[in-house]
Design brief:
Elements lengths: L1 E7 L4 H4 L13 H17 L5 E4 L3 H13 L7 E3 L16 H8 L1 H9 L43 H21 L4 E5 L1 H12 L17 E5 L5 E6 L5
């Protein structure tokens, strides 16, 4: 059976400040670096050997993957980066403090934006003044997306739209590696990984709202030849 391991990046600088992060390219905090290394130590303890790695094009995910693989003595594993594994785009919420957003729009509305499956946040196109903050808010401003058709670049996403973005890369690359019997590790983000978990485990739209993936705690799946889940384990540091 092939193994699929999902690792959410360690705490980012903006996570530590309680800001909506999304596609803004922040780095890991000191705590995040420690979490990424701890994830690699857990993988080393389990003795999992990888054949292929995938990550997003955002620094916090790339750094987490590299630190984890280094701790597991597997930094050499072939790696593919894709914008399709990016965090969900929080639209006009990006850069805002979550507590301030709750004060402005109410706890229930912000909770819906954060956790619901199909409720969109305020889109960048609805608040044009936020589209060019430091040249970062709208992804077309960043050259790492130069080859992505403009119509596919988001101005705000919910989990449903994120899943629609992630699935083509799952079908074209990740699932093929798994069907070839390769052990795969993915270093990505809370919502892009939740989208994959929904797909792999066939979780309902309602139940996925309750799924949370902690920073730096690897989710380990064993998948059969049809990519059905044979086993699942969440690796956690010892208390």
């Amino acid at each position: 059976m092939a193994k699929l391991v999902l690792i959410r990046h360690g705490q980012s600088e903006w996570n530590a400040l309680n800001l909506f992060n999304g596609w803004v390219d922040t780095k890991l905090s000191d705590k995040g670096v420690a979490q990424a290394k701890a994830a690699g130590q857990l993988l080393a303890k389990e003795g999992i050997q990888f054949d292929q790695a995938y990550t997003s094009v955002l620094t916090r995910a790339i750094t987490t993957l590299h630190l984890a693989l280094e701790e597991a003595d597997q930094l050499w594993v072939p790696e593919v980066k894709s914008w399709r594994l990016n965090e969900r785009h929080y639209g006009a919420l990006q850069g805002l403090n979550k507590a301030d957003a709750a004060t402005k729009w109410g706890d229930e509305q912000v909770h819906q934006w954060r956790r619901s499956y199909d409720v969109l946040p305020p889109l960048l196109e609805d608040q044009a003044e936020t589209m060019t903050i430091d040249g970062k808010s709208y992804p077309a401003m960043d050259r790492r997306y130069h080859d992505v058709p403009a119509g596919e670049l988001p101005k705000g996403e919910n989990l449903k739209v994120t899943l629609d973005r992630v699935l083509p890369f799952w079908d074209s690359d990740i699932s093929k590696a798994l069907k070839d019997g390769k052990n795969v590790v993915i270093g990505a983000h809370g919502n892009s990984l939740r989208a994959l978990v929904k797909h792999v485990e066939q979780i309902s739209d309602e139940d996925i709202m309750g799924v949370e993936i902690a920073n730096g705690q690897p989710w380990v799946y064993e998948l059969d030849e049809d990519l059905n889940v044979a086993s699942k384990d969440i690796l956690k540091p010892e208390a």
